[in-house]
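Customer escalation, tier 2.

The customer says the design service returned an amino acid string that "doesn't look like it belongs to this structure." They asked us to rerun it and document both sides in this ticket. The original C-alpha cells are below, unchanged.
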C-alpha cells in the first residue's frame, strides 16, 4: 500500500511538471501566432538596406557573451526589465521592432508584451540568434565582428 501511495504521488508530481511545460509551450505558440516572425534572411536584408528597424536583444546578461546582432539601432533589455525600460528607450510606437533571444521563444513573449503596451509592429526573429548565426550572418562580440564557420 505504501508503494502504491508513493507511486501515485510521483505520477502527480511528474504530471504537474509536464502540465506546466505544456502551458509554457502553449503560451509561446500563442505569442508566436499573434506577433509573427521575421526570418534571419529578411532581417539581414532590412539591416543591409538601412531600413528603419530596431533590433532588440531580450536575453539575460550572462547569455550576451555569445555576441549580438549588429544594427544601426539596437538595444539590449532583458526580458524581465522590458516593460519597465522600453518606453524610455523607444518612443515611436509605430517602429518595426524585432526582438531576439537565444532560440526565439522568450523573444516571442517579449514581442507580445510590446504589442500589449502599444508597440504595433513588434515581431520576433525566428530561431533567435542561433538561427542568425547558423545562417552565416555576423555576430558582434567583444573582440569584433565574427561569423559562425561550419567545420567539415
Amino acid at each position: 500500500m505504501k508503494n502504491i501511495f508513493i507511486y501515485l504521488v510521483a505520477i502527480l508530481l511528474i504530471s504537474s511538471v509536464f502540465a506546466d511545460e505544456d502551458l509554457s509551450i502553449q503560451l509561446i505558440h500563442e505569442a508566436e501566432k499573434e506577433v509573427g516572425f521575421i526570418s534571419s534572411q529578411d532581417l539581414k536584408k532590412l539591416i543591409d538596406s538601412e531600413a528603419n528597424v530596431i533590433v532588440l536583444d531580450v536575453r539575460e546578461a550572462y547569455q550576451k557573451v555569445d555576441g549580438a546582432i549588429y544594427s544601426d539601432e539596437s538595444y539590449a533589455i532583458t526580458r524581465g526589465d522590458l516593460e519597465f525600460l522600453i518606453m524610455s528607450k523607444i518612443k515611436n510606437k509605430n517602429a518595426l521592432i524585432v526582438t531576439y533571444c537565444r532560440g526565439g521563444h522568450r523573444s516571442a513573449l517579449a514581442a507580445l508584451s510590446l504589442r500589449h503596451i502599444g508597440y504595433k509592429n513588434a515581431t520576433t526573429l525566428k530561431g533567435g540568434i542561433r538561427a542568425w548565426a547558423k545562417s552565416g550572418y555576423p555576430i558582434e562580440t567583444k573582440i569584433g565582428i565574427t561569423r559562425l564557420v561550419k567545420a567539415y
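Tier 2 assessment: The sequence is consistent with the input. Residues 2 and 83 are 49 Å apart (CA to CA). The mean pLDDT is 86. Sent an explanation to the customer and offered a walkthrough call.
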